[in-house]
Design goal:
This protein is an alpha+beta fold. 37% of the residues lie in helices and 30% in strands. The strands form 2 sheets. It has a 4-stranded antiparallel beta sheet. Strands 1-2 form a two-stranded antiparallel sheet. A hairpin with a 3-residue loop joins strand 3 and strand 4. The two termini are 25 Å apart.
Length: 105
């Protein structure tokens, strides 16, 4: 998964994610929508990543649900039902990078 993080200009700047592959665009939408809950999302991803016992976890935010099963993640937009899948390790890395940029705002 290749992407670039950038901060939009304007009255209320936000962190945007530009993906090389369109299929990952829902991840960027999820991070923007759930930006107030990024710490909790990282905690869930870390728990699955670091634990050999915890293999399945679910994170529900304001508009998205993240279902983590081992190394696979399914992200669902709870409003329109759109779905995508990603690697748990890649989502964890992206979420941490996004939060780091978001905290600078």
């Amino acid at each position: 998964m290749k992407y670039k993080l950038k901060i939009s200009r304007g009255k209320r700047p936000v962190v945007e994610v530009e993906f090389e592959e369109e299929r990952y665009s829902l991840l960027g939408e999820m991070l923007l929508a759930e930006r107030g809950l990024l710490t909790e999302l990282i905690g869930v991803l870390d728990e699955v990543h670091k634990s050999k016992e915890t293999e399945v976890k679910t994170f529900s935010g304001n508009a998205f649900t993240v279902y983590i099963e081992g190394e696979n993640v399914k992200i669902t937009n709870d409003i329109n039902g759109e779905e995508t899948e990603a690697s748990a390790a890649e989502l964890r890395k992206l979420t941490k990078a996004y939060k780091k940029h978001y905290d600078k705002l």
